[in-house]
């Protein structure tokens, strides 16, 4: 919540609720009373996770939908992929180099305009103390 003391009113409000049971997690949220979202996460097996995300903004005809998956190749490496209704396709590879040090390579491709460019590549080095 954000409170504007000069105007004595709330200028922003966010609310979220989550529930976890066994292999499933559910999450829902409301932002400013106009944006509504929810997600479902499932741990299919020890090495494979999936997720579905849905969001809607009132006053517009804009609904967002996405699915994602992550596969643990071994205890130190994983691959992930996602796609959404805007035809954005993401892939990633994460490798634990040593305890507290991870290297991630990622790419985001616009499936609607594959030949036009505008794709993204990423590299991250995560250090944990």
TrEMBL record:
Ranges in coiled-coil conformation: none
CDD domains assigned to the protein according to its UniProt record, in alphabetical order: Porin3_VDAC
Example of a GO cellular component annotation carried by this entry: pore complex
Pfam families per the UniProt record, alphabetical: Porin_3 (PF01459)
Keyword tRNA processing found: no
Bilayer-spanning residue ranges: none
Assigned keywords, A-Z: Acetylation, Ion transport, Membrane, Mitochondrion, Mitochondrion outer membrane, NAD, Nucleotide-binding, Porin, Transmembrane, Transmembrane beta strand, Transport
Gene Ontology molecular function terms on file: nucleotide binding; porin activity; voltage-gated monoatomic anion channel activity
Record's function text: Non-selective voltage-gated ion channel that mediates the transport of anions and cations through the mitochondrion outer membrane and plasma membrane. The channel adopts an open conformation at zero mV and a closed conformation at both positive and negative potentials. There are two populations of channels; the main that functions in a lower open-state conductance with lower ion selectivity, that switch, in a voltage-dependent manner, from the open to a low-conducting 'closed' state and the other that has a normal ion selectivity in the typical high conductance, 'open' state. Catalyzes the scrambling of phospholipids across the outer mitochondrial membrane; the mechanism is unrelated to channel activity and is capable of translocating both anionic and zwitterionic phospholipids.
Family assignment from sequence similarity: Belongs to the eukaryotic mitochondrial porin family.
Name used for this protein in its record: Non-selective voltage-gated ion channel VDAC2
